[in-house]
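Re: export button greyed out
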Amino acid sequence: MSIYKFIIQTNHDTRAAGYLKDAHALGFQRLKSIAVQDLYFIEGQLSQEELQKLALTLFTDPVTQSASWDELPAPLSSGEPDSVILEVSLRPGVTDPVAEQIVRASHELNFKGVQRAATGVRFQVSGLKVEQVEQLAKALLANNVIQHWMIGEITPSFPEEAESSGAVEIIPIRELSNDELLSLSKDRRAALDLAEMKAIQDYFIEEKRDPTDVEFETIAQTWSEHCVHKTFKANIVISNSVNSNYQSPITNYPSNINSLIRTYLKSATDKIAAPWVISAFVDNAGIIDFDDEFEISFKAETHNHPSAVEPFGGANTGVGGVIRDVLGVSAKPIANTDVLCFGPQDLDPASLPDGVLHPRRIQSGVVAGVQDYGNKIGIPTVNGAILYDEGYTANPLVFCGCVGIAPKGKHKKNPQVGDRVVVLGGRTGRDGLRGATFSSMTMDAQTGEVAGASVQIGDPITEKGLIDVIVRARDLGLYNDITDCGAGGLSSAVGEMASSIGCDVDLTKVKLKYAGLAPWEIWLSEAQERMVVAVAPEKISDLQKLCATFNTELTDIGEFTGNGSLVVRYGAKVVVEMNNEFLHDGIPQRQLKAEIREQRVESSNAPIPNHLISSHLISLLSSPNIASKSHVIRIYDHEVQGGTVIKPLTGIQMDAPSDAAVIKPIGTQGVKGIALSNGINPEFGKRDAYQMAWSVIDEALRNAVAVGADPERIAILDNFCWGDPLRPETLGSLVEACRGCHDAALFYGTPFISGKDSLNNEYLGADGLRHAIPPTLLISAIGIVHDVNQAVSMDLKEAGNLVYLIGDHQSSVISNQSVPDVPKFTLQVYKALHQAIRSGYVKAAHDLSEGGLAVAIAEMCIGGRLGAEINFESSNLFNEVNGCLLVEIAPENKSAFEKQFDNLPFQKIGQVTETPTLKLGNHEIKVEELVHAFIHPS
Amino acid sequence: MKPKALILQAHGSNRDFDVMNALTLAGADVTGVPLNQLRDNKTLLADFQLLVVPGGFSYADALGAGKLLALDLISYFSDEVSAFVEAGKPVIGICNGFQVLVKAGILPGDSVIASEAKQSPTQQEIASGYRPRNDGVTLTFNAEGHFECRWVNLKSTSQTCIWTKDLDEVIACPIAHGEGNFQSIENIAKEHIALTYVHADGLPANGLYPINPNGSTLDIAGITNTKGNVLGLMPHPENHIHNWQHPLHTRGVKNGSGLKLFQNGVKYAKGM
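Workaround output, generated via the alternate export path:
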């Protein structure tokens, strides 16, 4: 067998300029040029003529590309003088959809001698010494987690063809001491504490045997923070900070809290008891009523740890994962959201902690990963945010959300005795092993290396096949239960589905990407793009036909038995036989301590001296957190499915930031739509977690209401990203945030329908210092818009119209807390605004958030390329407040509009002008300057 | 009788339902047919009067957008698709569908480029018996170097093309692609240019980004074959068939919708 290598040169390759720019930004100033070529490798036996045909028909575009090829080992091709060749290829086992297509297409073309394929990239670097090119490879051009690289010619590695031994190890847990139990947990990266390890030990002492490695790994995954949310279900003892006189803000603070989820999140939803909530907290995604025919589901997930070590793959599979959550409630995905938190893009590369990728590289990788998956699978990415804070340098946050739609009453969640356990979609490899436990641990400088297998590249087209199959199978009633394969793989998906009924599965039936996997690896693999369904035996053939139509693999691996126990075999050998009750309910409740600390008061609202107002506004507009994100938004397809009514960028030049997205789901009749928005504020999180929770819920709601959502028909999701909950003050701020969520949800009557947490977002650098993220709560809101034709955008519409400030600006500003209050009448203000929108009075609406009133009106001017004359107390121009919006009203609707706000706080603060100048009192700034600051920040 | 339209659903199509909505609204009887089903029953195609290769990422754009689906068309349906085109039935390829039609050699079709101007095949090509299928034209990576989603304006420049005939109004609709940069070895004959990128007022983009969003030569957004029954275009008129889809609908703008183009195709298909 030979290996052939093809080098493809593209004329005017645009990638070269991008790499050059990035490399310069990362400090490789001496780099003169960098040329990029694509590499394809084929293993097999081919004639010269066949090689030539392959190169010309398959690998090159006759207009723009040329190819050369050779058999490996090839004589070292000489590049330009003084240039260094660097070649990069994927590690064996990393998903490579292009390589798979090369093999398939070669066979379609009758090149039977093609056995396997691999891909790579070749860089020709000028201006740097070899050692510097090696540095550049690490910093920018390659990632050890998924790739290997070499100066000079690389030989691709194909997965080894090892036979699976089926070896199962017995773990002698019964005789271990406490210390040995803890080191077992550590050695197997199980992230279990002593109480949990002892519970496992007790179970097997009772069973009079030791567990297999498959059983131990199954328990570790099932009991991971990622799968079971043990912090949110823990019993928490509360204390006030010992070192201060600080008293909890409410006197009846309980001395202990038995489960944050039950006490604060679910309980809020239960108390609100909204009749239009169809499913909350129980399924893969929350579900609300849409119209007579359809229901809408919504879920947001995080994929932080994988994105830190492999930004593209981490974000890519994050998007893929949350889409499967929505498929898991039998819904067709119709919209994606993504909220991203990164370190400063201009961070000095020298100050990076050891083993951490530069924030610039993390951002470009994450954004490319979101783009690749969302665009290819055909789901519009319509709402999101990007935030920068030094606290995210080592721990970027990647929140991926997905909305789905399904006809009512079609989602089944009830496996029957005798149903087959069926795996749909991608094949199983060594992908993402121990991902659930990986995400539950603090990272260290070595994490990137040892966690290699935890990060994968997604394959959106395979998942598209799953959507095509599942939506049709649902309508045909071909399955009785469905769930996605996420963290924990089959162990978690099958285990969860069989948790009451029991099942018997054979791992040798599972289709593998390559041979050589041990039983525990098959059972635990987190290979992407897989779903598990429970199918009645007589319906298997119909499902099989459907799968064949959409190039989706179906594998029958066993049966739901009805005897309540989980039995996993590897051929004749039983490798797991466990009581389901122990597996799912046997985890001891965690006992944790939380310390409620005094809020950090910061005078962040120091008044801006009058003469600096214009320059301050300009500098705010061009600051990273406020400036336009169009360079990211435009590379996401936000139009596919044809339902995007309010787009992420809006206004006459389509370059102003929308408050929220409105979509009209494809396939629905009538004029109804949904609004999608978010609220997030790490700056407030650092100061006062309780008030922060109120603020971000308010932000999500006021954004949704601004575009036309009915404030009485909004549901929300929580996503908590925090540090290590074993540290009492960290857990204290988490408790405070949950309490804030509860109180604010009740205040607005807005139920939580789903949530997720990602804890341990900390990083122990080689410097020995702990790097933790700011306490970060993302609230994602989904609201009903009764008529999409009435949706409102934020751009100023017409000169002569009036500008109103609605909401109690004053009381939000004068509170002496470090985070603004939500004023008392806020909900009534939102309801009145909604009525005004329904009546057609509101020409534009925009919420006040970072940068306050001044930034809000500036953005509205940018949107409409119109001016405004605003008279407002200048000392409060930039205050970040809650519960306030600016609205534009035509003069003829003045009195009708004001009547809607009877007894509510509002004030007319100015009007829209034809002259494109923003006048703030006696300050004048040309709209052109605002645009420039916002769109081209220096 | 409503003309029957077949929407080819390939591995990775994703604007199939979007174009089905547009054609339904334009008066066609639409059926989405997965490629594997058509492979099992190739004669099915002849029962239809209109063929659509919709947008998406067939085979994830591996080895170049549209390339592998084009290979499928050639390998499996070469005769059936040729007969369909020869019969003069309307065919439209949108975005990825356009890339497929070009890379399968269906567009621009025969004798697009004056033969003397055509680059001769290399020695290698002759030796291997290979002839490039796409007659010296291609859709390559956007000049800006990345995927882009934004609204553009299109002007019809062909009265031969049955799809763009009598489209007097500028059509506004989104693009969403990374490989939409139309390039040819020699200038493509004028009669093949069906749609160009223009300013909202209809003035030519003259290569100015982002009016011309991808760097296409001569601002080409869509091309047609000699007969005028096949149209390929990068933008998505199927995503502007309702007023609320237009980005300026909140400003009361009612810009030319993409529906007219589909109505043209359906009207013509009725006669087939």
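The longest helix of chain B spans residues 67-86. The button fix ships in the next patch.
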